[in-house]
Design goal:
38% of the residues are buried. The chain has helices at 9-18, 35-48, 72-81, 102-109, 130-134, 149-156, 161-171, 183-206, 211-223, 231-240, 247-259, 289-295, 303-317, 354-365, 393-397, and strands at 24-28, 56-60, 89-94, 115-121, 139-143, 228-229, 263-270, 275-285, 321-327, 330-337, 342-348, 372-377, 383-385, 388-392. 41% of the residues lie in helices and 21% in strands. The strands form 2 sheets. Strands 6-8-7-9-10-11-12-14-13 form a 9-stranded mixed β-sheet. A 5-stranded parallel β-sheet has the order 2-3-4-1-5, covered by helices on one side. The chain is an alpha/beta fold and 403 residues long. It has 15 helices and 14 strands.
């Protein structure tokens, strides 16, 4: 039975740009976001371009037939013994975090200029150890997210975009979902992803002792996407529900969730002082289907914060540096640091109500500088309020307009 796949040109373009460059290509992201498929498509492209299959080594470390190569020295020797030194060889190592001390192998392989190395990993812990220490400036991270709304529509069609958007935020963008038809099948698949991430990338890796506390933290954060959150607030909420915990435990479990790419933390940024603040971060989900799975469909009524999460992921896909803005007593949903200037973004479900419009304009209107300012809404209206541009979220997500 054939499996439908969506060709992900933006990631392929990045891989092409770095092909044959003396830099390790590291694809990261939550499990089943499509990293393996992207690597496989790139491998096929290399073959179509004339690269001989004997000059390509591709190993998936979640395939039990490769268990002998989970030893980093055996992996190293296997690659050296099966590559030609007088031509370029392409090395694809999938889910490399399963190899203990893999960075020792990668560090040595990198010294051989005839090897072009591509690795994937589903846990950011892999980039916090010796690989990052030894190879600073020698690897490039390509972060893979589940399907964007634009990619989603390449399979489902572009008619009735708003209806498709509502389906997208309900079940999310994990690529394999396009092969499933019923709501029950999709929820079961999301269940398998959630439990795989929680068990393999959090509980086992971090040796979590209190699984119920971990689950409670997930529920709290999934239910509070786009809200200011502190570890003390999480701890107090759990305590009021009768769940014993400590702030230290909360921080440890929270870091494990971030390392598994199930959640992203966004720091607050003082717009006036142009500096980061250390408290009240916001958290966003890597995929909203996981929220539907864990909290149920009734929680999808918070459409404003859901849209904010969708916009955050789209900004992340575009490789922006993203912060939450604090402007004295006002808050701006996103401050984007382009390197040259800043872009300020408010996200609202609708601003057709006059009071809502005033409330959303105020944080932007009181910013003293003259950088670009936007309100992104699900309204189809396009307006300009004294230099603050209102644009359609669907236009932005489908790249019919840019910031």
């Amino acid at each position: 039975m054939s499996k439908n796949t969506i060709y992900r040109e933006e990631y392929m373009k990045k891989l092409r740009n770095y092909k044959d460059k003396n830099i390790i290509k590291v694809l990261t992201g939550i499990r089943r976001s499509g990293k393996s498929t992207i690597l496989n498509e790139f491998r096929k492209e290399l073959i179509n371009d004339g690269i001989l299959e004997k000059n390509i080594i591709s190993i998936n470390f979640e395939d039990n037939s490769n268990k002998e190569l989970l030893d980093y020295q055996k992996l190293h020797d296997f690659i050296i013994d099966n590559t030609e030194k007088n031509t370029k060889n392409y090395i694809f190592l999938d889910e490399i975090q399963n190899v203990l001390d893999f960075e020792k192998c990668i560090n040595s392989l990198f010294l051989r200029e005839y090897l072009d190395i591509y690795i994937t990993g589903s846990n950011s812990y892999m980039l916090s150890g010796e690989l990052a220490t030894f190879l600073t400036g020698r690897y490039i991270q390509i972060h893979v997210l589940p399907l964007s709304f634009r990619e989603y529509l390449t399979f489902y069609g572009e008619n009735d975009e708003l209806k498709k958007y509502n389906e997208y935020i309900k079940y999310g963008g994990f690529p394999y979902l396009i092969n499933l038809d019923t709501s029950n099948e999709k929820i079961q698949y999301l269940d398998s992803i959630y439990n795989t991430v929680i068990i393999k990338d959090v509980i086992n890796r971090k040796k979590v002792n209190d699984v119920l506390v971990l689950e409670s933290i997930c529920r709290f954060l999934f239910d509070n996407i786009g809200s200011n959150v502190s570890t003390k607030k999480i701890s107090d909420t759990l305590s009021s529900g009768g769940r014993k915990n400590s702030v230290h435990t909360i921080e440890e479990y929270l870091n494990a969730l971030l390392e598994s790419y199930i959640l992203y933390k966004v720091h607050r940024f003082d717009i006036k002082g142009k500096q980061l603040l250390k408290t009240q971060e916001k958290y966003y989900l890597s995929d909203l289907g996981l929220r539907t799975y864990l909290l149920g469909q009734n929680h999808n009524k918070d459409l404003g914060h859901i849209l904010e999460n969708v916009i955050f992921l789209e900004l992340k896909r575009r490789d922006y540096r993203i912060f939450v803005g604090k402007n004295e007593t006002n808050e701006v949903d996103f401050v984007i640091d382009t390197g040259d200037d800043y872009i300020y973004v408010q996200v609202a479900l609708s601003v057709r109500d006059e009071e809502t419009l005033k409330r959303e304009l105020k944080p932007l209107a009181t910013i003293p500088d003259h950088f670009r300012k936007y309100i992104i809404t699900l309204d189809y209206d396009i307006n300009n309020y004294n230099g603050i541009k209102q644009i359609s979220a669907l236009d932005f997500l489908l790249r019919r307009c840019e910031l």
